[in-house]
Amino acid sequence: MKNRTLEFPAARRDPERGYTLLGRWFDDPYAWLERLDAPETQSWLSAQEAVTRAVLQAVPGREVLRNAAARSACYARLSPPVPAGPPGREFFWQADADGEKLKFMLRRGKGAPLETVLDPNTWASNEALVFAVPSPDGMRLAFGKSVGGTHAAIIHVLDVETGRLLPDRPRGTSHASVAWRPDASGFFYAACPEPGEVPPGDEAHWNAIYEHRLGSGEPARRVFGDEHEKAYWCSVQISECRRFAVLYKWDYVHANAVYLLRLADDRLVPVAPTLRALNQVQVIGDLLLIRTDLDAPRGRLCVAPLTAPEHWRTLIPEGSDTLQTVTGVGGRLYAVYSHAASHRVRIHAEDGTYLRDLPLPALGSVNRNEGEGTVSGISGAWSGDEVWVSFMSYVQPPSVYRYDFAADRLSPYHVPDAGLDASKYVTEQVWYESLDGTRVSMFLVHRRDLPRDGRQAVRLSGYGGFNIALEPRYSALNAAWLKLGGVLAFAHVRGGGEYGRAWHEAACKTRRQNAFDDYIAAARWLVSAGYTTPSKLVSRGNSNGGLLVAVTAMQAPEAFGAVYCRAPILDMLRFPNFSHLSSATVEFGSPEDPVEGAYLAGYSPYHNVRADRRYPVMAFAPALNDQVAPPHDPLKMAARLQAEGTQGGPYLLLPLRDSGHGGGTTLTALIEQDADELSFYCWALGLAPPEP
């Protein structure tokens, strides 16, 4: 059982620190903790971590928890093949069950053995292989290497045959989104400017597409970007026909503009030149396929001739489900829909005629969310005949299947074993009413024989922002919790992408309270429906989900027994000052705006700690190498709660060292982080892990 008499090192309070915003004074007594490298901050953080470590290491059965996390994380991994070079030559991402990091491999032909092209396991433990893109002839590899996380990668170029690194050093920083020229003479990529090319403080902005020519010695040339708005970012793809580079400019996840770069003469051709909608473009012969939510909040598919790329006509109209992606493979169109927050795949002919549904193994996910929006889990060539399907669920790790259209058969290619018997668990979808009467869906995952006695340990999660859907995805942490007898609940609160643009916009800016109300209602429904009690309910959120669980703990502390808040934003009046978040005002609103600023101040967790409230026990886990969310926010929040929220708690600080926004860079680090989190659940809820 948790010990409320823990002694935490006091944080120095600076009563003079603060600022005036919109005519109101806001104190910021722990602003000094924003200097993470300062000796005083490091000393305080280490002392806080020592208290947390003493608690977690003493949890009875911790080794059982670690073993459950390890077994759930240790499974073989294999990607669909990436063809490049002569026919039959394919590249793969691959790792054995105990592989610390994914390797990039080569197979020279059918039946040939796998050869290691790039093995990041030979690098320092905190170095990550973020991406690897082979040249069209298969002779070169452009790969991104980062330190302490998956952001801020730098491109290196490898000679595949010799294993030698080329001297090329592409211009800029935070490299991403590599796309080779068809003749392998160079590649396009997204990057931020070199230091000194922009004013101080703008180094993480002015993202653009550059072209690097191999061996030229000349600086990469800037080919696409925005001249006036520094917050946009860019991405690039090469069309299968190898005639065009498809260029995107993103206004966060709210809208993008799309151009074609005709490679024969470097002419820019507008397809969607204004930032009015989210669009995905694929070149098919002399046509463009455009998946868009323009005038269709749940998405539609349009087609346009290359001779008139801005003249669209609807090929697949908007329906009741949310159309996420459409991929042309083997002469057919594979449309992936979100149907009540899980995926359905419908196959259409080239003219849009519906043919059939593609049968998936279970309720689960095909697509994934990345910096370039929603990425289809259906892959293959328009001119080829192999259809690859990626799939996962809450109880099945990332898997790869082949789909045979003629036989209408989905065959397993790689389905790993993570030690979880999926037949023993059920995923059910329930619906509940939020405060304003809106019906909200929620997935529950638990053992089939679960007793409905109101005493189950339930972990509730949510996200509620940035048009990102909370869909069935496997994680070792979730699987371990299920093995230990816990229940998983995932609330599809407003602000996410589960039900299209309108659902997302229903919790943007001054409507964000809808997401918080939806989440609090989910917690209360789990109790009223007889699954659990507040004392057995742990609320867990990551990133924007971390903000969600912190706000709801401040607003409805009696609804939760414990809160695990990972890599969050917690100071909603200062977030634009953090490099990568200045453009997030399109999602949250601006603290400088009289209406939006007042609204942000009304729910900002750091500014709404009240001494008269009994908050639940909470753990804050900042990723200290985080490039996406301010790693200092959890430090400031923990300091304030420990000083002012004395009726509740305790409040633990668990720094994720050598970790970026997505966690550690090695399998061992990820397992240890999961073991820590499971230990916190057991300690905070008073649970005893089952015997091995």
* Through-space gap between termini: 20 Å
Strand order of the largest sheet: 33-34-36-35-37-38-39-40
Strand content: 25-35%
Q: CATH class of the largest domain, anyone?
A: Alpha Beta
Global morphology: globular
What's the helical proportion of residues? 10-25%
What structural class do helix, strand and pairing data support?
Answer: alpha+beta
What's the CATH architecture name of the largest domain?
A: 3-Layer(aba) Sandwich
Question: Which features would summarize this protein structure in a list?
Answer:
single chain, 692 residues, alpha+beta, Rossmann fold, Methylamine Dehydrogenase, Chain H, 17% helix
Description:
- By secondary structure, the chain is of the alpha+beta class.
- It has three domains: 39-71 and 448-487 and 517-685, 3-Layer(aba) Sandwich (Rossmann fold), CATH 3.40.50; 77-238, Prolyl oligopeptidase, N-terminal domain (Methylamine Dehydrogenase, Chain H, 7 Propeller); 320-417.
- 17% of the residues lie in helices and 33% in strands.
- The chain has ten helices and 40 strands.
- The strands form ten sheets. An eight-stranded mixed β-sheet has the order 33-34-36-35-37-38-39-40, with helices on both faces. Strands 3, 4, 5, 6 and 7 form a five-stranded antiparallel β-sheet that branches.
- Strand 20 (287-292) and strand 21 form a beta hairpin.
- Residues 9-414 form the Peptidase S9A N-terminal domain.
- Its EC number is 3.4.21.26.
- Residues 474-686 form the Peptidase S9 prolyl oligopeptidase catalytic domain.
- InterPro entries: AB_hydrolase_fold, Pept_S9_AS, Pept_S9A_N, Peptidase_S9_cat, Peptidase_S9A, Prolyl_oligopep/macrocyclase.
